[in-house]
Structure formats: C-alpha cells, structure tokens
User: Fold this.
Amino acid sequence: MSRTITICFTNNKGGSGKSTTCSNVGAAMAQAGKKVLLIDGDMQLNLSLSFFPEEWVLEQAAGEKNLYHAIGKQQDLTDYIVHTPYENLDLIPSSTLMSSIEYELFTKWQREFILKKCLQKVKDSGKYDYILIDAPPTLGGWVMNILCASDRVLIPVEASPWGMFGLANMFDFLGEVRQIAENLQVLGIAVTKVDTRKNYFKQTMETLHEMEDIYLFESYIRVDSAIEWAQDSSAPVVEFKKSSRSAKEYKALAEEVMNRVSR
Ligand SMILES: Nc1ncnc2c1ncn2[C@@H]1O[C@H](COP(=O)(O)OP(=O)(O)O)[C@@H](O)[C@H]1O
Ligand SMILES: [Mg+2]
Assistant:
C-alpha cells in the first residue's frame, strides 16, 4: 500500500481560507523535509498563483498541461507535475476551463472516480509524502471527485457568522460522499482569519468545540496582512515572511496536521 496521504481542503463557502491554508500547510510540510504535491482544483487558480506569477499561471491555464486537460483525457497526472521554486514542493496547475468540468464529467463512466484514477500512479510511486488538493467553493460532482481521491479532508472555516453558516450542508454532503469514498476521514476543522479581539471568535470556537466527532485544530490562523503581501508576491507566507505571525501559525498547523495524519 502507498504511504502517500492525500488531503483535500474543502468548504462550500468561498473565502474561508482553503487556498491560503492549502498553499501554506503544503509549503510548511516541504520546509519540514516532506515531499509534497499540490493540486489546484479550482478555476480561480489561487493555489497556482500562490507560487507562480500571473503571466505564467494564465499561460499554463490556456495551454494543455493543466488539470482540466488531464481529467478530460483521463490521463496519468505524472506528466502534468511542475516544480515550484521551493524544494520538495511540486504543483499541478489548474485552468479557467475548470468552470465546465461538471459538464465534462457528466458523460463519463464511474464519473466520481476520474481524479482518483488519474492520481493512482503518482500515489503508487511513493514519491510524495503528501498530496494536497485545493477544492473550489462548490459541492458537486467535481468536489465529489476530489473527496473520492482523498484519504482525509480538512475544512477551513472563517471565524465569522457566515463562515459558520453552511457547515451543515458541507457535513450532509460529506455523509453522502463517504458512502462511496470508504477511506475518507474528516481530519478536522481549522479556523482562519481570526480576529481575537472580537467576541465572535470565542463564540465560533465554542460552537465548533461542541460539535461531536469533529476535531477542531488547536492552531488557528489570525488575520495578518503579511498573507496578502505574500500572495501579491506569488509566494506562500511561510516562505515570504518567515518571521510573520501567520507564518508561525501555519507552521504550527502543518505540524498538527502531520501528527494527526500519522496517528
Ligand atoms: N489569515 C488571513 N489574514 C488575512 N487575509 C487572509 C487570511 N487568510 C486568507 N486571507 C484572504 O482572504 C481571501 C480568501 O482566502 P482564500 O484562501 O482564497 O479562501 P478560499 O480559497 O476558501 O476562497 C484571500 O483574499 C486571502 O488573501
Ligand atoms: Mg480558493
């Protein structure tokens, strides 16, 4: 059996910190010496933009070497991997055409498992310790593919009233997917974009703590402008500004993720 663990970052709420968390947890794992492959599953290209300048990302999105084409042609993803500027850290870029991926999947045989099949050789090669997949803010056939290809799901939640709203839908959907994705386990909820001065943060944490059977990560990520400056420079904050608060918080979260996964 492959020792590679695949973790996806999913929440149907946009702006909950999926892409930021996926890129920084991945980069922190790579800094810790783990071999990591990141897969950009969203047409917004945010994960790709976390590592490469806009011109490169758009060029890649318009070309043939991206996830959309691999899925359409049902090809082994090995040929779609690019190296990021950082050691131990590779990426499969996305395409704006991902907007029509649902349509693309519709006519295919065993359509929930296309990504899983395309990823199988990469997984079996044992080249990576972790494969991290950034999901779009939807709950459809494509996210079902992402979940079916994953061993674990991490749910980033924004510490806001609307961040909490919709979690029930997410869990209903996960319940359905788990009927066909037998290996899938919920790794836990990570709270992002926290303003500790606000009482709402405490209420969010209390509500999440009360949820049975769901692990709440101890490391949460506070609001930090260094994240935006890092994204503006096409770099994850754990590389862009190692001394920043959010870089330290993301490193702690990555450690917690690795510890939980290895249990
Ligand atoms: N801890 C943070 N501090 C400040 N801004 C953040 C933080 N985390 C995310 N953001 C910003 O919030 C927005 C949404 O985050 P993103 O990771 O793209 O969410 P999602 O992928 O769930 O849509 C982005 O513009 C990002 O720069
Ligand atoms: Mg995103």
Remarks:
- The radius of gyration is 17 Å.
